[in-house]
Amino acid sequence: MSKIKTVLWPKVILFGDSITQGSFQPNGWGADIAHKLARKCDVLNRGLSGYNSRWGKILLPRLFSSTNSEENNIAAVTVFFGSNDCALQDKNPQQHVPLQEYSENLKEITRFLASVGVSADRVIFITPPPINESAWEKECIVKGFTLNRHNSVAGQYAQTCVQAASQCGAHVLDLWTLMQKDGQDYTAFLSDGLHLSQEGNQFVSQHLWELLESRVAHLPFILPYWGDVDAKSPESSLLCDQ
């Protein structure tokens, strides 16, 4: 009997901080993307709560294979850092990353991905969402801190993310701008002033899918539709290379 060929699903990798880590919760944006891509891609959650772009950049070689092989078949990568980078330096120096370094980190992440076969047109940057300062301040006080993030500063990081994407040739989802478009009340998108509510997760999923769909539309449905399996000789349907 000839050797059976392993079926390799293409990958969509979600890389970022807690907003990515939590995206596989019920009704989360990552879970929704994974549902849309069932039988087409493996959607992998590589979200790391509390991490910033500096730490993410350092970790890349541990998260992505350095060999550009068939097994490293990556259809798209989302890069979603900034909500921790933009923490105020005097209030939260551990997570804070200066604006210029944040820009360079995003570019370095893109260069690394290119080195393992993920071209810039398959990379989607996601900016930090806006911050509801009054709600987040309450969370900070409960944890024994003072307010350590400002929405205006998050906006600076969002703008820098957009610029870095343009310079790298990557795509970008500007949540900070979209969630505040036309003066709409963005606070409903946030659960605690910083992280996404159910409505916020739906917002991210909807807008991310608009960017992602064209990058995965060409991918085939993996393995035969059940109605196409030869019931008398299922091996002939299930063990072929298609």
Automatic annotation (TrEMBL):
Enzymatic reactions: a 1-O-alkyl-2-acetyl-sn-glycero-3-phosphocholine + H2O = a 1-O-alkyl-sn-glycero-3-phosphocholine + acetate + H(+); 1-O-hexadecyl-2-acetyl-sn-glycero-3-phosphate + H2O = 1-O-hexadecyl-sn-glycero-3-phosphate + acetate + H(+); 1-O-hexadecyl-2-acetyl-sn-glycero-3-phosphocholine + H2O = 1-O-hexadecyl-sn-glycero-3-phosphocholine + acetate + H(+)
InterPro entries reported for this sequence: Iah1-like, SGNH_hydro, SGNH_hydro_sf
Segments forming domain SGNH hydrolase-type esterase: 14-202
One matching Pfam family: Lipase_GDSL_2
Gene3D superfamilies: SGNH hydrolase (3.40.50.1110)
GO molecular function: 1-alkyl-2-acetylglycerophosphocholine esterase activity
Function, as annotated: Probable lipase.
Species of origin: Champsocephalus esox (pike icefish)
EC number: 3.1.1.47
Keywords from the named record: Hydrolase
Name the record gives this protein: Isoamyl acetate-hydrolyzing esterase 1 homolog
Family as reported in the entry's similarity comment: Belongs to the 'GDSL' lipolytic enzyme family. IAH1 subfamily.
Class in the EC hierarchy, top level: hydrolase
